[in-house]
Amino acid sequence: MIHAAFLIPLFPLAGFAVLAPFGRRLGNPLAGWFATAMVFFSFVVTALVFAGLFQHAPDARHFTQHWFTWLSVDHLRVDAGLYVDPLSMTMAAFITGVSTLIHLYSIGYMEHDKDFSKFFVYLNLFVFSMLMLVLGDNFLLSFFGWEGVGVCSYFLISFWFERPSAASAGKKAMIYNRIGDAGFLAAIFLIFEKTGSVQYRVVFAHLSHLPTGTLVAIALLLFLGAAGKSAQIPLYPWLADAMEGPTPVSALIHAATMVTAGVYLMCRINPILHLAPDAAHVIAWVGACTALLGASIGCAQNDIKKVLAYSTISQLGYMFLAVGSGAYVAAIFLMLTHAFYKALLFLSAGSVIHAMDDEQDIKKMGALAKLMPLTAIAFLIGWLSIAGIPPFSGFWSKGEVLMNAWAVSPALWAIGAFTAMLTAYYMGREYFLVFLGQRRWVEAHASGDGHAHVLEVSNHHGADPGASGARSTEETGSEPGHGSAGLHPHDARWVMSAPLVVLSICAVFGGFIDLPFHPNFVLLQRWLNPVVGHSLLVTHFSVAQEWAFGIADAVLALIGATIAASAWRRTAEHPALEPRVLSMAWFIDWSFDHLIARPSSMLAAFSSAVIDNRVIDGAVNGVGALARLGGLGLRKVQNGYVRTYALGLLAGAVVLIAFIIYRAGV
Amino acid sequence: MMARTLLAASTLSLPHVNYTAIMPELIVLGGSLLLLAVSAVTPRRLPTTVYAAMTSGIGIAALVASLVLYHDVRQGGAFVAIAHSIDVDGFSVLVMTLASCVLILTPMLAAGFFERERLGGCEYYALACISVGGAMLMGAANDLVLIFLALEVLSIPLYVMAGLDYRREGSGEAALKYFLLGAFSSAIFVYGIALVYGATGSTNLGEIAAFLSHNVLVANGVLYGGMALLIVGFSFKIAAVPFHMWTPDVYQGSPTPAVGFMASIAKVGGFAAFLRVFISSFPTLSQTWKPVLWVIVIITVLVGAIAALVQRNVKRMLAYSSINHAGFILLGLQAATARGAAGSLYYLFAYSLLVLGSFGVVAVVGGRGDSGHSIERYRGLGRRSPLLAGAFALLLLAQAGAPFTTGFFAKLYVVEAAVAAHSYALAIVAMVSAAIAAFFYLRVVFVMFGDVQPVPAPAGDAALVAAGEPALVATAVPHAGLLEPAAGASGGLLLAEAPVLVEQDAATVEPSTDEEVRDGIVSAWTWAGLILTVGATVVFGIWPQPLVDFAQHAHLLF
Hints:
By secondary structure, chain A is mainly alpha-helical.
């Protein structure tokens, strides 16, 4: 059973290979169903392998599936093969599971898009790359998946590339990721130089021979790579812009693939981090700061998806805090539960956007709960989970992270706890503004002039004309004669609702896979123990302490939620709570733009205008002119006459003989 | 006494002929006769696809025979046959296999062209069979005289092929140029054989090697001279600089499918013999010939890459790119190690398929009259015919050495061999040339998939180019004299370096007025050929092991 592991990445790859040439012929919705089926099969195989692995003794739960030797150059030997162990299988399971739901949802969400099949081509390739990343048995194969994920994210974020904002968001993601990738690459070089291998198990077996400084360097370089993919300080701004892609893409990037890659990498290299505690401290602090930063910015955003994007940055910060604290299980636990509730939140947000005719400004929503009860409940569950209200899943996972942070430094705990309160607040703000309070939009037929409404909405919306915007046939709703000017929000059809229900269930009960209180309940920890066990910083808390932490978390979450309720239940205007410094994201992105991007653009413009025109073109033209006018250079020789060529041949022969005989000293 | 001597002289002792050892050659040469016979006895002219199918069938039969021979060699070891003139070892069997693959693919990628151009008949296919037979023999020959014969068997059909498109002046010019220069280089080659024979007393490769390892020549000028001339002869065949000058003109003028074929088979045959002669006969003299090749490799990769940069004609560009590739393959020979030879063989394999496929696409895009080879014709191809453009892009990326294609491993293995042989400078220069080459491959990809509208040329540039045209005429005309290029009544040169200076000047060149290139007009045969070449490029690019093993076995039984 476990030897079917090769099928896990193969199914999405097959989906890609079939859909790329034939997707358009399969058409809408068949291409979508095909892609969904491929990912679902992959999920089924993952489940089977998972079960097969479970039958082994804990210490025997890993094996390498060797496919073929990919590269063999001198000492460097890179195999293409899979490494199956509890960590990679946990990742594969939730990647394929959540991706299946997102694929299903996309069938509904993208049904009016003219590039329907192309979307699924990219989605399948995305899932394939992500699976290669987590299943690869060496750094280079993971890097292959890593780059594949980067490329797919570029394609998908700028999927609606006709919109300049989407095109530039894709570029931004690409560039930030390149910075991180450089770190990853340098780390691979360093690892190969020091250990002579890039295979995980061989590398980890060699670690004890390496000096700490080297290990710290490797760990930090890999962390740079992880920071790029997982949007940590300072490489986070791309993630906020990445929501320019269609909403299912945001869900996929934020929940199942892409951003979790960095956390996975950090957990995979836990033996390195274990021996490089300095690096671990850096990671913990960067993680904590990112968590706080993301949460603070999230408090003042008005775009329904942007709030979620900053909350992802913040939650990823928690995961890195856990990794840096040596609590790998907590990191994976949070990643899992986060995948559930973040996918849930994004998909509900997508339903809202869909229903609101591509409106994304939460200040223009309100009172949607009655009209979209299912979506409202799903979003509510998502909010309560991310806020850490017991017994929702986020409470357990975040609690575990915070408890472990306390063991490292109470300061880290304090930052994390404050962030937790902020999280409950800003997500509550979003919930109240979208689903409760007053209706701040115009219902169908309520105002006689639906057309004016649409104009008003798009005028207010600033740079972003909304999700499927110009390319969605829903726009025709505002045409006269179509009879449905304005909005009538409603829950989406079942392909979009079913994933919400499944994810809601997971978000509620997902926390039960790793409950504290009793050693028999920590299922996830026991499962992952063979992988991360010896690196875990185990701190034993008494049951009373665990209760105290739990109660503190719950109280903080409730405080945050209460503030949100009292402030945003009735009104949508609280300028004091939305200082400009927060809505402008601490001006960090702005500063990057003005201090780095613009000067380099200016440098590029200068180079193009002056250096390229004068120096390079000048040289090219000069060479050309020289060749032409003086009759020198290539064309003189290559003039088309046989006699010239024969002469050249003869001259070459003469020179060659002279050279050989001269060298031989005859 | 005297009578006995006469008697002895008059009984010619015939060698025992082991037919299985030359079965692939017999199949392809017999196949060419079969093709000619069929075309002679059929009352009506058969469609070109029938001949193409027959030729591919002959290729498949030769492939099977080669693989059977491969099996024999793996089981029973290498052996020499037919009076020590034929080597049957992993190397020759690999060359046979490769040549068979070329013969299978060539008609697929040519049939559509000949149908479109209404150049029916079996000539192209029969010539291809003969040429492939020559290439196989070059890989197997263990005697310099036989190598020379094989070289001619390989080359003469190519000269004819170059002139096959008799209605186009350029084709005739290309054929005549190729023939004259080829004859010249053959003469040099034969002279080299004579000198080597004079110095060592044998033309048999094994005996030459044995002689050189047992004797120390006091005055070895004759031997060195002979070796140098052999290098010249081979370098001409494989188009290494400075013996490459025929290449761009011949490639540009010849019918496009013939170019694809000659670019692959001439290199296969030429390199096969080059590797065998220098590695098995002159290993003791490697300190003498390695520096020569060192220089040749450097100028070959650089001239190939840099000259290709300024080409506006895609066929000419690919001609220079094949020169660049020749430099890379030589890199493996220059290493003078088993690893290097294996790397060269792998490169040959990858290159042959890539170049066949690339010219297959060029033949389609060239349009009726085989004239639309300006790079402008490729503008927007990605939109009009995405599959064709996609295949071409992939083949070009592979030629540039992109990962996940055979091109990547090909470059990797020869450069690795060079590094292992401590030729660091060579490896670096080769990689720099690869980076330069990537530029012009990517330019074509960019043109195909970039904006449809060309950027209008700034007035200054246009003027510059306009000024360039008369300048060429001015340099060309006064020299017209002794040997008039075969350009026909027009009296001008059709095939020479065009004045390409600024890319934008192409904006003034209208894409050919021929019918639009769309995926729909591509024949099923061409698709089959492209699928095979592209498929092999990608599959063996991701899963290189089988080909690598194959190439390495070749050297083990060397």
